[in-house]
């Protein structure tokens, strides 16, 4: 299957492909895929409105992607699932200006197994200015993913939802504005991420050997993660984070209702919050989420929680003494 130019792909039967590309980035870049009741596998990459634009120095470019798969057994890709990913490289000595925007929405429901080899990326901007140039552009990404009724969601690489990454190489300066927004809802999902899960994150950094400053104005990151009766395992979780201490506004919100997270590191933005819903006295784990009377829990090596922690009791305990082990971590800051 290959479709170009703001296209729509709909399929209701089982399908296999080496690669599936929907939406022409060079021509503007809109793409939509709807797989209703259809198993799908791509030996390599499934990409919807995703790609690179070389030597883009001025003007605007927006990519929009939507993806839906429902009521089927499998969705499998061997080398990544990319929805609304825009990469841009400005050539040496040029000044990158204009507006770059990526918008993506995904809905996966009633899929027994989702297997992604490589990265799962929704609404990602990656821009690079080569030697001697500077950046004075506007970067915006917005992405949402709703997943429900998935027995196994396995991603071997990163999970990037609403991410902006921009680098300035060698010399020049960066006075651009950055906005990243990501929202993920998991309901009755067991998910395993082989690398870091980044939701609403900005990495606007000087590249190797750069002498140019990176702006600290006009930076805004928002990340929301809601789990309902779900288990999430990953190497790391970043919610509403601005990397490299670049300043700006960062908000990350995590709601567990009740669910379980197992991660090496958990980091949320300064203005966010962490909400534990408590429906009973039994600690949630990946193996008991179908049971009643659970309370939400996190296992982590390190947890950086810049905002408030809210414990929301949904039941009235019997008189007695109880221990609610909400966070098990080596280091909590």
Summarize the main sheet.
Answer: 24 strands, parallel
Note the overall shape.
globular
What is the β-strand count? Answer: 26
State the separation between the terminal residues, measured CA to CA. 49 Å
- Based on secondary structure, the structural category is mainly beta
Radius of gyration: 21 Å
Please indicate the percent range of residues in DSSP E strands (runs of 2 or more). over 45%
Relative helix content: under 10%
Return residue spans where pLDDT drops below 50 for at least 5 consecutive residues. Answer: 1-6, 206-213
Order of helices and strands: EEEEEEEEEEEEEEEEEEEEEEEEEE
Mean pLDDT rating: 83
Q: Count of DSSP helices?
A: 0
Tell me what the structure shows.
The N and C termini lie far apart (49 Å). Helices cover 0% and strands 66% of the residues. It has no helices and 26 strands. The strands form 2 sheets. The chain has a 24-stranded parallel sheet that branches. It has a two-stranded parallel sheet with strand order 22-23. The model is unreliable at 1-6 and 206-213 (pLDDT under 50). The radius of gyration is 21 Å and the shape is globular. With 333 residues, the protein is mostly beta strands.
């Amino acid at each position: 299957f290959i479709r170009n130019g703001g296209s729509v792909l709909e399929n209701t039967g089982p399908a296999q492909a080496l690669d599936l590309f929907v939406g022409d980035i060079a021509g503007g870049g809109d793409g939509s895929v709807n797989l209703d009741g259809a198993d799908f596998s791509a030996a390599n990459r499934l990409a919807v409105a995703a790609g690179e634009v070389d030597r883009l120095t001025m003007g605007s470019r927006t990519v929009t992607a939507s993806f839906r798969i429902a009521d089927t057994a499998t969705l499998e890709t061997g080398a990544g699932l990319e929805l609304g990913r825009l990469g841009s490289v400005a050539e040496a000595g040029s000044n990158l200006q204009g507006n770059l925007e990526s918008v993506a929405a995904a809905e996966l429901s009633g899929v027994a197994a989702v297997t992604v080899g490589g990265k799962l990326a929704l609404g990602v901007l990656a821009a690079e200015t080569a030697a001697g140039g500077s950046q004075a552009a506007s970067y915006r990404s917005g992405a949402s993913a709703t997943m429900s009724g998935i027995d196994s969601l396995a991603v071997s690489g990163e999970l990037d939802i609403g991410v902006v990454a921009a680098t300035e190489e060698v010399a020049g300066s960066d006075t651009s504005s950055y906005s990243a927004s990501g929202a993920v809802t998991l309901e009755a999902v067991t998910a395993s991420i082989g690398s870091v899960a980044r939701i609403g994150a900005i990495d606007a950094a000087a590249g190797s050997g750069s002498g140019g400053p990176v702006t600290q104005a006009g930076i805004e990151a928002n990340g929301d993660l809601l789990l309902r009766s779900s288990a999430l395992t990953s190497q790391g979780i970043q919610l509403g984070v601005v990397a490299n201490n670049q300043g700006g506004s960062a908000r990350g919100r995590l709601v567990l209702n009740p669910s379980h997270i197992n991660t090496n590191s958990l980091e949320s933005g300064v203005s966010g919050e962490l909400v534990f819903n408590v429906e009973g006295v039994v600690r949630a784990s990946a193996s008991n989420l179908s049971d009643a009377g659970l309370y939400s829990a996190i296992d982590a090596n390190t947890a950086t929680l810049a905002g408030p922690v809210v414990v929301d009791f949904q039941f009235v305990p019997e008189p007695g003494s109880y221990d609610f082990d909400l966070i098990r971590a080596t280091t909590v800051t």
